[in-house]
Specification:
This protein has helices at about 1-30, 35-40, 50-75, 80-105, 130-155, 155-180. With about 180 residues, the protein is mostly helical. The termini are far apart.
Length: about 180
């Protein structure tokens, strides 16, 4: 019984000595007790990312991919189909880069919920290719606007590089679409 009591007292004394030494070393460094145990957690406000913008880019990118699939089905002109396939490939690359950025920055991108809202009567007429290509151009313009917003608001360098690279590809596609439509 005496050994058990002696063991408890010595164990308590060691624990108390350990806690006092940690508190003393923290006071000497000027840190608080919790910072030394849990680490100094800082929020880097400069590198924050707008999650709504990431979601919006994802949704817009998926729309472009769906529109290009629709165009591929409906248009017979091979030159325009090749342009649409190039645009689709560029957007697939943007999609992969966006997912990679999100994974590296621990961002979950929800599956986009949207409808294409195409007018079925427009898909039956003679100018179906013009209608669909204008619709594609409109969505690409929307994405360019989103990437401009990233360049002006984001401080995250990875996000800025992604936006700049994607915007360049989109602007080239926009110019190619405009020349295809003779606008």
């Amino acid at each position: 019984m005496k050994k058990s009591l002696l063991f408890r007292i010595s164990f308590f004394a060691l624990c108390l000595l350990f806690i006092i030494s940690i508190l003393y070393s923290c006071n000497k460094k000027g840190e608080s007790f919790t910072d030394s145990i849990f680490g100094n957690i800082t929020n880097d406000i400069e590198s924050t990312t707008d999650f709504n913008l990431v979601d919006s880019i994802n949704k817009s990118n998926k729309k472009v991919l769906d529109i290009t699939a629709l165009i591929k089905e409906k248009i017979n002109d091979n030159k325009k189909k090749q342009l649409v396939l190039k645009i689709k490939k560029d957007h697939q690359i943007i999609d992969i880069e966006l997912k990679k950025f999100a994974k590296n920055n621990l961002i979950l991108i929800p599956k986009p919920i949207y409808t294409l809202n195409n007018n079925p009567d427009s898909l039956k007429g003679q100018n179906i290719d013009v209608y669909l290509l204008h619709w594609l151009k409109k969505e690409i313009n929307h994405q360019i606007t989103q990437f401009d917003s990233i360049e002006t608001t984001s401080k995250n360098t990875d996000f800025l590089l992604f936006a700049k690279k994607s915007k360049e590809a989109l602007e080239q596609n926009k110019k190619a679409l405009e020349s295809s439509l003779d606008i």
